[in-house]
Amino acid sequence: MKKVLGKTARRLALGALLGMPLMFVAGCSDSRTPTGTLLNSAADAARGGQWENAGKTALKVLKREPSNVNALVLHALASEKLGRDGIALESARKAAELHPDNYAAQYTLGRLLARKPGAAAEAILPLERALKARPGDVNTLLLLGQCSGKINADNTINYYRMLPLETLARPEVQNQIAIYYVARRGAGRNNLELAFKALGAAYKAAPDNPGIVLNLALFLDHHARSGARAAGFYRRYLVLTEHNPELNPTRAQVQARMRAIQ
Predict the structure, then answer these.
(1) In angstroms, rounded to a whole number, what is the distance separating the alpha carbons of residues 133 and 104?
(2) What is the pLDDT of residues 2-24, one digit of tens each?
(3) 96 CB-side CA count, 13 A
(4) Which DSSP string corresponds to 102-162?
(5) pLDDT digits (tens, 9 = 90+) for 196-222
(6) Could you report the per-residue pLDDT of 63-80, keeping only the tens digit for each?
(7) 10 Å Cβ neighbour count for 61?
(8) CA spacing 20 to 30 A to 155: which of 4, 50, 51, 131?
C-alpha cells in the first residue's frame, strides 16, 4: 500500500521550547549581554522566522555555556530551517545526551531522526524519553506511532490508542493505522478487517484526500480482491489529481491498472 502522509504531528519543535516561559534567568558579572537576554533574543528571532539570527545568537550562548539546553535546541531548530540538517542533528543529539530528562531536547532529536531516512528505529528512544517527560503529548505519540510502524514494531498500535479521541479520528491518523494493519496482515486474523475499517473512517472524514482515496483503491484491489469496487476509487483519484502534474507517474500507473481490471 502506498504510504501517504497528510498533516501529521510534525509541528514546529520550536513550540516545544517556546511553550515554556520565555524569560530565561541568568546572572552576569561583567558588561556582556546576559545569557538570558541572548536566549530571549534568539527565541524572538526564531518566532519571527529570522533563523540565521536565531542560530548565530544561540551560538553566542553556546560559546559561554556549551551545555545550555535551550541554546542547543534553538541552534538545532535554526540549522534545520536553514537546510543544515547535519548540524541540526549534531546539536539536537548533544542536547539529548546532556539532558536526558528534558522534553524539548528529546523531542527535537526524535523528530529530526524521524525525518531521516532509515533512522526510524533510532528515533524511538528519544521520543520515548520525551513522552516520559511529558506524558500524553500528542505530537510525541504520533511520531512514535509513525516510527514504530516503519519498523513494524509489535507495540505500534499502543501509541495510537493513547491518543485523544479527536486526534485518533483524524483521517491521516486512521490512514496510518490502516497502513500498520496491512503491513501486519499475517500477524493477526482480523488485521485486514481492521485496516479496512480504518481506511473507511479516513475516507469518510476526508473523501477528497487523494492519498486516502488511492490507498482505499489499492486495498480493495489487492486485499479485498474487488477490482470493480477499486475501479471507482481509482477513477476518483484521477479526477482529484488531474491538475497535479507532479503526480503524473502515479496517475499513469493507476490508468494502466484500470485498463487491466476492466
Answers:
(1) 9
(2) 444 333 333 444 555 554 434 34
(3) 24
(4) -HHHHHHHHHHHHHSTT-HHHHHHHHHHHHHHSTT-HHHHHHHHHHHHHTT-TTHHHHHHT
(5) 999 999 999 999 999 999 999 999 999
(6) 999 999 999 999 999 999
(7) 25
(8) 4
Cα(70)–Cα(181) distance, integer angstroms = 39
- Burial class of residue 36, CB neighbours in 10 A (0-12, 13-18, 19+): middle
State mean pLDDT over 223-247.
95
What residue has cell string 535551550? 70
- Cβ contacts of 51 within 8 Å, gap of 6 or more: 45, 77, 78, 81, 82
Check residue 33 and report its DSSP letter: P
CA quadruple 39, 40, 43, 45: dihedral positive or negative?
negative
Q: Residue 209 is which amino acid?
A: N
**Is residue 59 a contact partner of residue 67, using CB atoms and an 8 Å limit?**
no
Q: Cell numbers for 249, please give them.
A: 507517474
Could you tell me which of 217, 212, 213, 219 has the C-alpha nearest to residue 175? 212
**Which class for 92: exposed (0-12), middle (13-18), buried (19 or more C-beta within 10 A)?**
buried
Q: What percent of the chain has pLDDT over 70?
A: 88
Contacts with 5 (C-beta within 8 Å, 6 or more apart), sequence order = 172, 176, 211
